[in-house]
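Deliverable D2.4 — example input (structure tokens):
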């Protein structure tokens, strides 16, 4: 069978993946910045737990802090691993937190807690918005098939 002009000699399977596993894909700057901002928001959240005013029994507070830190670590690890569903869970949960903030924020009476929460929001809101940009959507949407 002779080669037909205009047709590719490559097999169809070679053209199916936009990204081959041998070609590393650079992480977009928006995604990198979003991950750093979300990491900072998680650190501020842990600091909020550390500086809670009710430390009458410190042993009972240490385990939850390490548990929350572990959850945050694996959450960020999942975002770095390009889990698109986790990106959307992050966006939805951040949106719910932002919508419900007017109801519970006035109940915070400790100034340290309020300051850490506002710092957390200052990092989490732009980080979440950066995860919604087209560059982030494209990076989370296409993954190399191993």
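Example output (designed residues):
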């Amino acid at each position: 069978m002779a080669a037909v002009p205009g047709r590719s000699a490559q097999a169809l399977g070679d053209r199916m993946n936009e990204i081959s596993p041998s070609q590393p894909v650079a992480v977009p700057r928006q995604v990198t910045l979003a991950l750093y901002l979300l990491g900072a928001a998680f650190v501020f959240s842990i600091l909020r737990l550390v500086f809670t005013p009710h430390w009458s029994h410190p042993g009972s507070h240490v385990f939850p802090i390490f548990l929350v830190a572990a959850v945050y670590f694996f959450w960020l690890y999942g975002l770095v691993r390009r889990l698109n569903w986790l990106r959307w869970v992050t966006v939805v949960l951040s949106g719910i937190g932002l919508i419900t903030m007017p109801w519970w924020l006035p109940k915070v009476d400790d100034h340290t807690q309020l300051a850490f929460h506002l710092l957390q929001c200052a990092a989490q809101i732009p980080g979440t918005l950066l995860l919604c940009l087209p560059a982030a959507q494209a990076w989370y949407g296409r993954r190399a098939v191993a």
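Helices lie at 12-16, 29-50, 58-80, 84-104, 111-130, 134-141.
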